[in-house]
Structure formats: structure tokens, C-alpha cells
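Worked example 3 (structure in, sequence out).
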């Protein structure tokens, strides 16, 4: 079993960087929260993530084929009237096989259709009963099985993983008091502040209704028409453009619950919280050119990455934490905590770690598990309660409705992946595909015929769910948004301020790409007007590539100097390189190259990364040919001495023209660490790449190993790219 090395260094990392806001949050001190388990001591996963699913698994090894009703059959050939005659209606085997095929699909999710899932285990760091009655947080070391599904939002089920998009981060805890879902995303905010706008948002972002173009992309008129009219979206748009839209992998993104929730104790005392999953792999993102190439070369990049990591035992890990604040602090941070388009900077309310999730098991059947899982923000357990965030409130309806539509009936909670670990007892009955056999004939409450059972459970009886007793609601009915939600520009301004110059350039380039696709001059101008309210320099730089737009004078109403240290993705080295991909470029025509590749391959694999030796043919020791390989396959790459010839000549019928050189040049252009052992540096001269940060030349493989270990942690060398003057 693996030990968890990185966590101890990540605990207690709340670094204060000039707090721009009015008042600090309620930080849970260690004493407040009970003893936290030493993270290094959580070594053993004792709970099997799939134990409760095992009874539903079908094992087809060494058995005869049967119909769905169990009759052994031969279904390889249909029943005909003569070998050359027509197929007969009588053929129940044929009919069942075809009919089952015709019905294989259910409607894909209207959003988040493309995703990948995995099982894991959550371990609580301590006894948190002083802030919540949630049983999965009640004891140090308590383990709870989990399922997680990560996704893009806009693309269809078969779209590319590396599309620029917000990413879903939906987590289910199979707790011993029922299922609890945090259905979050990889940014702390959402586009809109009222769920009634969701269909508008999604209609604007999805492909055009006439020609279904573009797929999985926001770079079109309707999206920017919406963003420039519904300006609550600007905060999220800025984060997506600054790198959050193109994560390197699902493993390298954080997750956020986004809305404010309540934690409630057994006694009914409540605090407000924001949920956060911190990736212990660190945050890392693609560059846009790389993401686009990845989409074309390997549309399964993200699902493959997490699958391979889990198969190799490089179990990805996230730390669950909460920002905790008081009921009285709802308006204390300069905005309204019920507005999901705003986040509380971690300098203002640091994150209190609660436990750790380790994903350690891949699903066995994509449809049965990853496709059929039906997350709902309404899957909630005792000790947790909602807030009046209007988007959360709307979601409580929509997800249930979406599952009904996808399953065509109300028994979707009976699918193995949706069943709770604990028995269910209620008077819900019948419906399509009922899989239980309810035996209670008094399916109503109150009853005497079943001795009053199932009994009602509540705060004091039966350990039941309860609404926080101090939740207050008052006010006249009104179809209006709170004025405390009105500022749509101060936070995107803070996001912009918090980016390094290189990241600002990434955001500018991203917006140049996106807005270059806008045909309507009105939409272009509207968008420039809106980002001018974030920053005049940003607006001017984006507008540089457009025609027919005027950059208005600075609109300083919302300009501020606030910053947070927690937004920047590229400024922080990764805590670990485990599970990254590394390429060693070699040539089968050089013994020197092949023997160096074999040695280096072993040395680099010892760093806990996936190493591929690339050469012309798949002789032993080669993992990828130049016919198949591309720079997107590697987070870093090294050229072996003896292989220089293929960079100089670059022509061989065994691979596309100039491919080896192209791999090297693109890896450099995607900001990756690249290097050469010994004489192989001549390949770099040919590629026009000089030695500089992230470009390593050495005669010593030991030096290269340590250079690359550091280089892969740096991940992207942004100083290679020009900044606007
Ligand atoms: Fe979702 N969302 N959403 N959403 N969402 C769905 O539910 C919806 C929102 C999120 O991997 C759908 O089961 C409304 C915020 C994730 O299975 C649907 C609103 C956040 C997933 C739906 C929101 C999310 C969904 C599609 C109000 C982040 C994928 C199928 C504005 C905090 C879950 C389904 C998975 C999926 C509706 C807003 C995240 C249609 C009405 C905010 C991660 O019901």
C-alpha cells in the first residue's frame, strides 16, 4: 500500500497575502476541530470501494451464452427458412439481441456529457462533530467509499477531452448515513447567479442550432453575446481563459462546491462553508496550442490519463477542505456569499482540511457506472444543509428531473452505482423497472398494520436529516435579484491582477482566439466594453487583433488593486511528478541511441513517471513509433545521442515528413522541459532551440535526471513566450 508523502507539507498552507477584504472568516483552529490525524499515518485503505457493488457484477468467464431470461443459446447465427432463406420472426434469440442493441443508449447528459469516473476512498482527518453531525466526518481515520466523475460541460459524449471549458468535479460519498454528493467544478465560481438563467447560458454556449457548429467550444457569437449581456459570467470567463479551461489532466485540477452550504451539529448550531478539493498532484494546465493539438491527436487524453494512473498504482489524491465562516458574515466579504459568481479568497478565509480522497479503482463498465451515476446536489446527509443561493436552490430541482429523463423512470437510485451502502426504507413504490421487492403491505404513513414502520427520523429521533434550526426566511415574494449580487467586475479585476505577466498574456491570447471567431461587430464591441470595466489594458490588448471595435477610455468604477495568491496556476511548481509522461527520442539505426534509451528509460521510470521510448519501429524496447508519437504525448522529452541523423535528414517512409524534429519543436513550443544527452544537442541546433531555462544539455544522465525532475515540476517554461510590448 502506498504511503502518502505529500500531504504533510500541504497541511496548514494558508499564506496571507495582503488581505483586501473587510473581515476575516472563522478559521477552525486545530483545537476547535479535535485532533487531526497525522496524514502520514493514513497508509492503509481498509474499506473496499467496490465491496457493496460486487453482488451486481456479472462474470462471464467459462460459461455458456444465455438469453436475458437464462436459457442457454447459440446466438451467432439467425434462424432462417433454409440457409439462404429469410430470417424468421420466431427467432426470439435474434429479436432479443437486436432489440437490446437498439435500446443501448440513454439520453446523454444535457451538460457534462463527456467525462470519466473512478472509485476511491475518503478518510477523515479527525472528529469534526463540533462543526457537523455528518457521520463521515465524525472520527479520525473513518473511511467512506466514493465515486468521482470529472467532465467537460459543453461538448457531447464523443467530443474531445481537451476542449477549453469549465470542468465538472462531481463527487459521491457512500456514507453510512446515505449518499452525499458534492457536484462541483474546477473553479470556485459559476457563470450565473439565478438558476432560471441556466437554459439561456447553455443554449448560448452549445453549438449553433442550425448547423451544430462549433462542437465543445465557446469561440462563437452566441457565447460572447451572452457573456457581454449577462455579465455575472465574466469572473468565470476570466478564470477559464487564464488556464483553468485547459487542465493538464483531471488529476491536476482542484474541485469546488461553489455554493455556500451549511454544516450543522447535532445540537443544531451551524456555520457556513465552501467545499474545496485540493489536488495533491498540484494544478497544471495545457497551453492552448497544445490543448488544440491534443484534441486532434488524442481525444481521450484525460480519461486515459486518470485511467492509466490508477492502473499503475499512481493513485490521485485530493484533500477535502472547507472555508468556514459565520452565519453573520454573509455580507462581510464585500459581496454576498449567496452569489455563486463570487469566491472568498483563501487569504480572507483559509481552507480547513477535513480529510483526503484517494482514487484507487477504475470502473469495470463505463455505461453501468460512469454513465449511469446520477449525481444530485439534493443527495444530502444529516449534518449538512443548503443555503439560499438561488443557483443551488434551482439545482435541487433540475438534477432530479434530469435523472428522470435519462432513465425514463423513478427507479434510477436502484442502479448499483446509485444505491446507497445502507438499506433504504420508505413508501415509494412501483414505477418502471422496480428492482426491489417491497414486502410491507402498509405502504403509507401513519400506519398501524406495520407497527408504524418505517418511522419518521429527525434531529432528535432516529438520527435523521434535519434542516438547520436557525435558518430564517422572510420577505415579500418578488421576482428580483438581490442588489448585493450586482457587482460583476471587481472580482474578475482581482483575478486579472492576480495573474503573472505570462499568465495575463495567456488570458489575452485566449480572448484574442475566442473573440476572433465572433462575426457580429455588435457582440465584439459589447464584449470589449465589458472587459474594459475589468481592465483597460486587457481590453486594448484583446481588441488589437479585432477590426471594427473601439476601446473605450478606462472605466475605473470597479478597478481595484486586490490580489489573491491562490489563482495563479503556472506560478507554482508541482508537488509531485508522479504519473506524468516522458518521452525518450531514439533511433533503431543507432546502437548507441538504443542502449542509451534503454538505460535512461529505466532511470526515468524510477521517478514514478510513464516513460516511452520513441523510435522508427516497434523493436523490443520501443514503446511508440514516430508514425504515432506527437509532442502532446509527453510532459518532457530527451533526445539520445546517436539519433541525431533523424533530426538532420528527417525523411523516412516510416514517419510523416520531418516528424522527429517537429516533436522536438512542438514540445519546446508547448513550454515543456526538453533536453539532450551528449552529442544529441545538435538536434536542438537544427530545431533552433538554444540552451535556456527548461532546455537541458549534459553528458551526464544523472544531471539530466535531476534537471528534468525539477523541470517537470516547473511544468511550463513560460519565459519562452513573448509578452505584448
Ligand atoms: Fe449542473 N447540471 N446545473 N452545475 N452539473 C448537470 O445534471 C444545472 C451547476 C455540474 O458528472 C445536469 O445529471 C442547473 C453548477 C456537474 O454526472 C443538469 C444549474 C455546478 C455536472 C444540470 C447547474 C454544476 C452537472 C446534467 C443551475 C458546479 C455533471 C445531467 C444554474 C457547482 C455531473 C445531470 C456528472 C450536471 C443542471 C449549475 C456542476 C442538467 C439547472 C453551479 C459537475 O441537471
Amino acid at each position: 500500500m502506498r504511503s502518502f508523502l505529500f500531504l504533510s507539507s500541504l497541511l496548514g498552507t494558508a499564506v496571507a497575502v495582503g488581505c483586501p477584504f473587510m473581515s476575516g472568516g472563522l478559521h477552525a483552529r486545530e483545537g476547535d476541530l479535535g485532533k487531526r490525524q497525522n496524514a502520514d499515518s493514513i497508509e492503509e485503505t481498509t474499506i473496499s470501494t467496490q465491496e457493496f457493488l460486487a453482488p451486481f457484477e456479472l462474470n462471464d468467464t467459462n460459461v455458456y451464452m444465455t438469453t436475458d431470461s437464462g436459457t442457454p443459446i447459440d446466438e451467432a447465427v439467425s434462424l432462417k427458412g433454409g440457409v439462404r432463406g429469410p430470417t424468421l420472426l420466431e427467432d426470439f434469440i435474434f429479436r432479443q439481441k437486436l432489440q437490446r442493441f437498439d435500446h443501448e443508449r440513454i439520453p446523454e447528459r444535457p451538460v457534462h456529457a463527456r467525462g470519466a469516473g473512478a472509485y476511491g476512498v475518503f478518510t477523515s482527518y479527525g472528529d469534526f462533530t463540533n462543526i457537523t453531525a455528518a457521520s463521515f466526518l465524525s472520527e479520525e481515520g473513518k473511511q467512506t467509499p466514493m465515486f468521482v466523475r470529472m467532465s467537460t460541460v459543453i461538448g457531447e459524449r464523443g467530443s474531445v477531452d481537451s476542449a477549453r471549458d469549465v470542468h465538472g468535479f462531481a463527487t459521491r460519498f457512500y456514507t453510512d448515513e446515505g449518499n452525499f454528493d458534492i457536484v462541483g467544478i474546477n473553479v470556485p465560481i459559476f457563470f450565473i447567479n439565478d438558476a432560471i438563467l441556466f437554459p439561456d447560458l447553455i443554449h448560448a454556449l452549445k453549438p449553433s442550432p442550425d448547423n451544430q457548429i462549433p462542437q465543445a467550444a465557446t469561440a462563437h457569437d452566441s457565447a460572447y453575446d451572452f457573456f457581454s449581456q449577462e455579465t455575472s459570467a465574466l469572473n468565470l470567463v476570466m478564470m477559464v481563459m487564464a488556464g483553468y479551461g485547459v487542465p493538464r489532466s483531471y488529476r491536476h485540477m482542484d474541485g469546488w462546491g461553489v455554493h455556500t452550504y451549511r454544516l450543522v451539529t447535532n445540537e443544531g448550531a451551524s456555520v457556513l462553508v465552501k467545499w474545496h478539493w485540493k489536488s495533491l498532484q498540484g494544478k497544471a494546465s495545457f497551453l492552448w496550442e497544445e490543448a488544440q493539438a491534443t484534441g486532434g491527436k488524442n481525444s481521450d487524453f484525460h480519461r486515459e490519463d486518470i485511467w492509466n494512473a490508477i492502473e499503475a498504482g499512481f493513485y490521485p489524491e485530493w484533500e477535502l477542505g472547507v472555508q468556514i465562516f459565520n452565519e453573520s458574515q454573509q455580507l462581510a466579504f464585500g459581496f454576498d456569499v449567496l452569489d455563486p459568481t463570487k469566491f472568498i479568497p483563501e487569504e480572507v478565509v483559509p481552507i480547513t482540511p477535513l480529510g483526503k480522497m484517494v482514487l484507487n479503482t477504475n470502473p469495470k463498465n463505463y455505461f453501468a457506472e460512469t454513465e449511469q451515476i446520477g449525481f444530485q446536489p439534493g443527495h444530502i446527509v444529516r449534518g449538512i444543509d443548503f443555503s439560499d443561493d438561488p443557483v443551488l436552490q434551482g439545482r435541487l430541482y433540475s438534477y432530479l428531473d434530469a435523472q428522470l429523463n435519462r432513465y425514463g423512470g423513478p427507479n434510477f437510485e436502484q442502479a448499483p452505482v446509485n444505491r446507497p451502502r445502507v438499506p433504504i426504507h420508505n413508501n415509494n413504490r412501483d414505477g418502471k423497472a422496480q428492482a426491489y421487492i417491497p414486502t410491507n403491505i402498509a405502504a403509507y404513513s401513519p400506519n398501524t398494520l406495520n407497527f408504524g414502520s418505517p418511522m419518521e427520523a429527525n434531529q432528535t429521533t432516529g438520527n435523521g436529516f434535519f434542516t438547520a434550526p436557525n435558518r430564517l426566511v422572510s420577505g415579500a415574494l418578488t421576482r428580483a435579484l438581490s442588489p448585493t449580487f450586482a457587482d460583476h467586475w471587481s472580482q474578475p479585476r482581482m483575478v486579472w491582477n492576480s495573474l503573472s505577466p505570462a499568465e495575463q498574456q495567456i488570458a489575452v491570447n485566449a480572448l484574442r482566439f475566442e473573440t476572433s471567431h465572433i462575426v457580429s461587430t455588435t457582440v465584439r464591441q459589447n464584449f470589449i466594453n465589458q472587459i474594459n470595466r475589468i481592465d483597460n489594458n486587457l481590453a486594448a490588448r484583446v481588441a488589437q487583433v479585432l477590426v471594427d471595435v473601439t476601446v473605450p477610455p478606462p472605466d475605473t468604477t470597479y478597478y481595484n488593486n486586490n490580489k489573491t495568491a491562490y489563482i495563479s496556476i503556472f506560478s507554482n511548481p508541482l508537488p509531485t511528478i508522479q504519473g506524468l509522461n516522458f518521452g525518450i527520442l531514439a533511433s533503431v539505426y543507432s546502437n548507441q541511441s538504443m542502449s542509451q534509451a534503454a538505460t535512461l528509460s529505466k532511470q526515468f521510470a524510477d521517478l514514478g513517471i510513464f516513460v516511452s521510448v520513441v523510435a522508427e519501429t516497434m523493436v523490443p524496447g520501443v514503446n511508440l513509433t514516430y508514425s504515432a508519437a506527437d509532442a502532446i504525448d509527453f510532459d518532457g522529452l530527451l533526445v539520445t545521442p546517436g539519433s541525431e541523423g533523424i533530426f538532420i535528414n528527417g525523411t523516412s517512409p516510416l514517419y510523416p515528413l520531418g516528424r522527429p524534429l517537429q516533436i522536438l519543436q512542438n514540445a519546446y513550443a508547448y513550454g515543456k522541459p526538453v533536453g539532450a544527452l551528449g552529442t544529441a544537442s545538435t538536434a536542438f541546433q537544427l530545431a533552433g532551440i538554444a540552451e535556456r531555462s527548461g532546455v537541458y544539455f549534459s553528458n551526464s544522465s544523472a544531471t539530466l535526471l535531476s534537471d528534468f525532475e525539477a523541470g517537470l515540476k516547473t511544468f511550463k517554461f513560460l519565459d519562452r513566450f513573448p509578452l505584448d510590448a
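Notes: Residues 390-407 form the longest helix (18 residues). The pocket of HDE is lined by residues 109-112, 115, 149, 151, 168, 170, 183-185, 190, 192, 195, 198, 258, 340, 374-375, 391, 394-395, 398-399, 402-403 (CB under 6 Å).
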